[in-house]
Amino acid sequence: MIRIEIDDRSGFCTGVVEAVKTAEEILEHSGTVYxxxxxxxxxxxxxxxxxxxxxxxxxxxxxxxxxxTVLIRAHGEPPETFRQAAENNIRLIDAxxxxxxxxxxxxREQVDAxxxxxxxxxxxxxSDHPEVRALVGQSNGRAIVxxxxxxLDANIINPPLALFSQTTMNSLxxxxxxxxLKDLMRNRGWNPxxxxxxxxxxxxxxxxxxxxxxxxxxxxxxxxxxxxxxxSNGKILFEACKEVNMHSYFIxxxxxxxxxxLSGVKSIGICGxxxxxxxxxxxxxxxxSARLNINKS
Length: 297
Ligand code: SF4
Prior knowledge:
The protein has 297 residues and is of the alpha/beta class. Helices cover 46% and strands 17% of the residues.
């Protein structure tokens, strides 16, 4: 008998759970509600909500919209979005995750604490990620986004420095980046103990999942990791699965599991990213059960 188990600690983080709940509540009383960007990096969940009336739009479409209701997803938005909405009579439903809101506030406070021309704000993250764009907006465009050591050399930075991280980055990589930054400061004659403040802004729900998912993935002959392909967190957690179990497969929909051979497999683990809904993991489990029963007969 083949064992199929779902990781009960996989699935949406609280920020996404709340954003989806907010969307569902508004949709009960409204016709079309727009979402500025996809509510979550998961096409299956975006389609489910689209069928209920939640329509994703991009920034260009947002700029031409008037007298409408628009949901702000968990990643948050820069101040410019709120200004544009007020001008165009757009009602915003703000579902920004409280953890992201706290990070936005810390960045604003840090900008205020630095004088106008002294001090650099660094954000360890991906410059094209919506959360990061919103964070840069909080700094009035002053923050410098860095991902690798070369990015430090490519930009003009002046002490004192404040370093933040996008909430979904890898903790180990963030620690390494901090070490590189401190070395660079020493090489330039600056003192990181006095001239650098580091914010530990990686979300605990992301960092704790790394070790948990390793524990889970190591227990099975084969692992299906379910995630949208554009999820940062999905990429990081899948790498963690692969490191402990070479028979780990990244899939975005249950149908994609059909191409993976299951002969000789005695146990299958199913897990996913913070943007993967539990219903999708369950649907994969049902598909695999059906497939294995068919194979057995
Ligand atoms: S990963 Fe953490 S910070 Fe980001 S939306 Fe989820 S709960 Fe909020």
